Predict the structure.
Amino acid sequence: MKEITDANFKEVVLESTKPVVLDIWAPWCGPCRMIAPILEQLSDEHTNVEFVKCNVDENPGVAQKFGIRSIPTVLFFKNGKIVDTAVGALPKNMFESKIGNL
């Protein structure tokens, strides 16, 4: 999964021609580490969707922009707009159903 920053967020996420799944995480977050392999696997399975992640400690602007108060938070974008959100360590099938709606 590609790492994004506050600086390239608009270009990579909001201006993407593909739906985007954005994982907002931190290295010290246990649940974030739990869902990382799930999202990696989904990124291999859904090549029509862009999967990216943003380290909240290094890029607080993205989290502030969307009022993120808890991590992991996964935002699902279509045409530059948030269409769904997932908070916490969810099972793979929950992420799959949200991706299916993109």
About this structure: The longest strand covers residues 81-87.
